Every structure is written in C-alpha cells, then in structure tokens.
Amino acid sequence: MDYITQGLSQAFILIATLNPEVVDITLRTLSITFTATLIASIISVPLGLYISFNNFFGKKTIISLIQTLYALPTVVVGLLMYMLLSNKGPLGIFGLLFTPSGMIIGQTVLIIPIITGLTIAALSNLDPGIRDTARSLGATVSQFFLSMLKEARFAILAAVVMGFSRAISEVGAAIMIGGNIRGQTRILTTTITLETGQGNFSLSIALGIILLLIALIVNMIVSYFQQR
Amino acid sequence: MDFKKSGLILLLIVLAGAVLMAGCTGTQSTGDAVATPAVTQTAEETPAVSEDKVLLIATTTSLDATGLLAELEKEFEEKTGTDVQITAVGTGAALELGANGDVDLLMVHDRLREDAFLKEGSATDRRVFAYNYFDIVGPESDPAGIKGMSPEDALVTIMEKGKTDANVKFVSRGDGSGTHGKEKALWKSAGYDYAENEPVWVKEDWYVEAGTGMGATLTMADEMNAYSLSDIGTFLKYSGDETISLVELVNEGDSLINIYGAMIISPEKYPETNVELSKEWINFLTSDGVQEEIQVFGVKEYGQPLFFPAKDAIAILSPSGVTQDEISAVIA
C-alpha cells in the first residue's frame, strides 16, 4: 500500500520541480498532438461542411462509414502506417518511420473521422431557418459557409477537442509508428507503458497526472469560450 | 420515421463512444494480450483447474519469442495436469512482478540483479537451466567495420564512428531488460560508465534508445540499418523468418555469455506463492529429458541450436559464478 503513497508523493515532486525529463516528454507530446489536430481539422472541417451541405449519391453511406471509423482501433492505424512507412513499404523512401512526423501522420489519420463526423453532426443540428435566411438574403457560397461555421462554431470546436483528446490518450499507434525512442519519439502514454513495466511507478503517476491536467485545461479553455 | 432515425443515430453515437472507450483501454492492454491466448486455450482444454494447480511465471521475452517456453509449458501441463500461465516481459519488469509477489516464479537472465534479488530474500532456489550468447548484429555492409572485433572494441568503435558518420547507429533496448543489463556491463568493461554517459549519448544521433522488447528493437535496427545487441535466440528466429536482414558481426568473447536462471518467489515474503508447483517446474527444467530437448530446440528450423543446456557445462558457466548445485541439484 505504501508504494502507492510513495509513488504519488514522488510524482508531485517531479511535477513541482519541473523535472527536465517530464517537461521534455510533455512538450513533445503536446507539439505532436497539436500538430496532428491542426492538420486533421484543416482537412476535416471543410470536408464536414461539404458533405453536410451537398446532396450526392451515397451520402448516407459515407456518413455511416465515417461514424464507423470513430471506432478505428489505434493499433490498426499503427499497423497500416508501419507497413506504409517501413523501408520495405511504398513510402519507405521518406524515412518517416520512428520519427515524430510519422507519429503526427498516424494521429492525423486516427482523428480525421471523428472530427469530420462530429462536424457533420454539429451542422445537421442547426436550425433549418438559419440556412433559409442566409440563402434568401442572397449570400454567396463562401458567405453562406462562413455564416454556417459561425453558427455551429462551438459544436465544431467540441469536435476538434474530441479529436485532440483521442490523439493525446492513445498509445498503440504511438509505440508502433514512433518506436518509443528516448528523446525522439517518447511521449506521455508510451513512457507510462515503459516505466510501469519497469516498476518506476512514480514517474508513471506523474505523467498520468499531467495527461489528466492537459485534458482538464483544454476543456476549461473550451467552456470559457462557450460561455462568452 | 424521423424519431426512428434520430434514435438510430443516437444509438450509433453511444455505441461509437462505448467502442472508443473500449478502444482506448483495449490498446493499453495489448501488452498482456500477447500472453493471454495460450492461457485461455489451456483454460478451455482443462476445465476448472483448482488454484493450487495454477503456476504463474514471469519470463524474459527471449524465452517466449523463440517458442521454447511454449513447448515446455505444453509438455509440463500434459504431464502434471496443471495450468501454467506465462507473462513475457523484460527481465526488469519480471523482477518487479516478483518483488510485488504477483507471480510464483521467475525465469530471467541478469545474474547481477538476480544476485541482489536473492540476497534481499525476495526469491529462493535459483537454478540455471540454459545458456547461449549475445551477439552484436548489424547491417551486412558493416559501416563501422566491427566484424570480428572483441565486443568491447566493437561498441567503442561504433560510438567513435557514430559521432562523425551519420550511417553508423546503435539501437539500445533501453528498457531495463537483461539484454540492456548486458549492454551496460559491456560498456563498463570497455571503460565507460553507462549511467554517466547515457544521458549524453541519447542526445547524439548515433545512440538510439528504443525502450521496447528484443523483437521490436531488432526490427527498428533493421529499418535504420543500425547495430544492436541481441540475444542469439531472438536474432536467429527473426533472421530465420526473414523478418530482418541484419547479420551477426561479433559473437566471440566470454563477456557475451547469456545465462538463464529460474527461481521461486520467497514464500516467507509472499505466503500465496505456489511453492510445490514451482519446485516441480524447476526440477522439470533441470531434468535430463528437458536438457536434451533444449539442446536440439530450433536446430531443424534455424540450422543451429538457440540455447545450450546448462547440464555438464560447468566449465563454461563457472567463470560467471555459477555453481554445480545451481545446475544439477534437485530442489527437495
């Protein structure tokens, strides 16, 4: 029992003294996940807008497919990316396996379906009256899209945050693509996996607390914007 | 109709959410998923094995990855009607499981740490059942030109060339395993204090610290055209299966010996330890029959044995501090 309290107290010391290794791992995690979330959002939000406001053959199927991919297992993404990025694979020439860039690609692929799907859901919840008003006022296509985006901005922000949360908390793809290399591709979740295996609970607990803190801070920022 | 549709979507979202959560937890447990299939199978074959018939073993990954342990497990279970449950982790993690009393028995390969573990009374009755050698492996082109050097010279050469040549890299296990322990010992005998140098090396491009198991480390070294230190068993398995194209470059030298020991978690510290079955398992390992099996294991597939039996090898093992009793004394 005392090893739990010991682990907890050491964890707080590690965080309070800004242990360089803990800081390094945290910053790397944030930069990889933020980049992936940004790229995924740039792809997913316009894609969601397009799918939502256009009627085309197979639209329902596409939406079902996107929603199915919410459950895309991270290890499957890891496996696919490993095979693509490996020297034996088609993208091997770029040398992205075991690099932070490779991890960013993996996380981006993982969260595109979530952000796209939740963006579609956000837009479908808009009052149809708003669309008609915008159209009847003679809005151009781009004005129309911008006004829709403005109306649904909080729900879309929530979609982006959901994607971020999934990316930062996953470990399967991160280990398979990144390889958990110290000082290069070691992030919060992969370090917890490794250190717990070695019985270094205090560092694992510290990093676990940091992961939870990141989630808390991100959510606080979002609710601050929503309440304005 | 509308109500139906929205209900369906809601259901989908809830399902997706549930699956997402399951997905998150699921990925985290992949580590032990590797070890469980064997367990569930045996559980199905032998319905309701009583508690004193279950033996929990934490083992180093190399014994598991080569398939030797699976073979011995099957044989032992058939012979005794017990259920052997094996979790394959690095030696460091195995010792940790032992120190917490989470298993009955350890099968590891790091003499220094085993000695400390026995000394502090966490385990008893160590027996040595097999040995083989570590290898320094690397790309066939051998950019640092280490072929045929002593292991210590090879490591130092990789370090010196790696500092200036981007094509020379070394991938370290870096996970506190027995192999990682051997690497530290080699650096030490080459005149470099690992604890002092490692933080510096990690910042340099030539030293890659993987923090994963032997198999994953080998595939990483293969991808990077890098050198690595590997136990011969895992290396032969991976190169024999053509998973990797690395070759053995340094395999001479007594300092590369790799000794596998089994020991029982101290029942004085942890009364739940299944001592009877643990004794039976270790005596089974040191028995003549199994020793002969170890000698021929893998020869058919890989053209050479993956392990050597400890029996009759006292001359080779004694410089590392192994006694005759550790090899052949039956645990009463």
UniProtKB/TrEMBL annotation, chain A:
One of its GO terms (cellular component) is plasma membrane. It is found in: Cell membrane; Membrane. Keywords: Membrane, Transmembrane, Transmembrane helix, Transport. It is a multi-pass membrane protein. The keyword Membrane applies. Residues 26-222 form the ABC transmembrane type-1 domain. InterPro entries: ABC_perm_TupB-like, MetI-like, MetI-like_sf. One of its GO terms (biological process) is transmembrane transport. PROSITE patterns: ABC_TM1. The chain crosses the membrane at residues 30-50, 62-84, 104-126, 154-181, 201-225. Belongs to the binding-protein-dependent transport system permease family. PANTHER family: PERMEASE COMPONENT OF TUNGSTATE ABC TRANSPORTER. This is ABC transporter permease. It comes from Methanomicrobium antiquum.
TrEMBL record, chain B:
It comes from the Archaea. Residues 51-288 form the PBP domain. InterPro entries: ABC-Tungstate_binding, PBP_domain. This is Substrate-binding domain-containing protein. It comes from Methanomicrobium antiquum.
